Amino acid sequence: MGLAKRWHETRTGMVVAECGSGKTLISLGAIHVHSAGRPFTSLAMVPPHLVEKWAREAFLTLPGIRVFLIDDLRNGGGENKFHGVNEVRLRQGRIVREGFRTTLSELRLRKQSSSSRKRWLSLCGRPSLFIVGRERAKLGYFWRHAYRVPRSGPYLGCVVNSETGKPVFVDDSRLTVAEFEKVKIAETIETREGKSCRPISQSPLAGRSRQDPPHGAD
Q1: Mean of the pLDDT values across residues 62-77?
Q2: Is 46 helix (H, G, I), strand (E, B) or coil?
Q3: CA nearest 71: which of 102, 27, 94, 28?
């Protein structure tokens, strides 16, 4: 109840307690109380090994709840793995994937509805909980490089540092955009065997320079 009351005053709250003290039940119960009987859509990002535990406890705690697992953040992939967003049910104490299946891309579409949220309410119309593993939500799927490439000037086509405007060198060779198609270059540079990077051109590849970029920099 303390958590539910706090949500009337602010948008955030925190439950801190020892393992096994019931933080999952407190969180689920607070969502139910805060909704005041109205249908709600909630999202839980949890450690990977607790995904099915959260789903199981949601069924045992919240009346009329529908639970969906976010099995991946993009469409496609290995045939032997679950993909997209899958509804789950509690069968003889086990979580099984049954019912509604969709993708995050599909859920973003409003189609004939005035908004994607209203379309979702027309499809569900009941309390719902989406669960995603923490590592799946944070890593891998949307990992992408951040770098700058001049549109003109002597460094045309090279990857340049966003702060200095100078090319990034790896083993005395300029780094090019094509190199990023092979591996995660940032990790490769950091783990080179005993070789140090040039400090003037190897500061962080920030999204925006603190100073005006040199002439010709993008």
Answers
A1: 86
A2: strand
A3: 102
Alpha helices in the chain (DSSP H): 2-6, 23-35, 51-61, 104-107, 116-123, 134-138, 185-190
Q: The tokens of 91 are what?
A: 């069968």
What's the average model confidence in pLDDT over 123-152?
A: 80
Q: Percent of the chain beyond pLDDT 70?
A: 77
Query: Is pLDDT at 209 greater than 70 in this prediction?
Result: no
Which residue from 69, 77, 26 is spatially nearest to 45, judged by alpha carbons? 69
Q: What are the residues whose beta carbons fall under 8 Å from the beta carbon of 161, sequence distance 6 or more?
A: 148, 167, 168, 201, 202, 203, 205
* DSSP symbols for 100-148: EEE-HHHHT--TTSSSHHHHHHHH--S-EEEEEEHHHHHSSTT-----B
Model pTM above 0.85: no
